[in-house]
Amino acid sequence: MQIRYMETHLPPVRVIAPGRVYRRDNLDLTHTPMFQQVEGLVVGDRVTMGDLKGTIIGCLRELFGPETRVMFRPSFFPYTEPSADVFIGCRSCGGAGCAVCKRTGWLEVLGCGMVHPAVFEAVGYDPPVTGFAFGIGIERLAMLLYGVDDIRQFYENDLRFLEQFPV
Amino acid sequence: MKILVSWLRDFVDVPVAPARLAADLHMAGFEVASVEPPPGAATTDDDAVIDLEITANRPDCLSVIGIARDGRWVVGGDPLRALAAQARVTLPSDDATGAVL
Question: Which residues of B touch A78 (CB under 8 A)?
């Protein structure tokens, strides 16, 4: 999505792209082979990691409350460099460690990073354009927000479940 | 990938407890899946097996020497020099190796 947009538009770019994602995965409490992801992309002059952090932290505090603790940990994604996994302080135990956060005190909520220069090269953007991107699995987020403990419930079409979320 | 802390010590000084080493490696981008006592031991105070998840961009760290080299900011010493000493290989001058380390 992001590539296609950049191929047909000049910077600056601000895109939110929700969509279904399919991958080989085994069904369990937190995994399905199909889920929804919301991707974001910002490209412009001198977009920095500070912009990325500010956006992500602001977004998470809007969703989970102004006191939410947010942690960035270095990670790897092929199309961003540097990349980071983002965690929020566990809402069940307040960071002390419990079964929900596997005794780490942190819950992984999204992945993000600064767009790799090779991506800009591929879509024909010239330096010094920079940008950041992130991807959030919205079922994961909904599970945390509403206390749903099994991701499969979103797709079982059980009315007792669905009717708890009026349009 | 599982790393034995005492094996790491063959190459570098590890001045911190295994649990702290694991925490530092974790925040450096090597996600720690588990920290367990080595076979026969009851605690992780002296030695530990650290299970690290190495991301696809760091195949250089799929070895004990790789972790030792990358972890030099948390541990002490000179892993390549220690390796050379074990292999009885003479390295060029400090300046020359300093450039490649």
Answer: 56
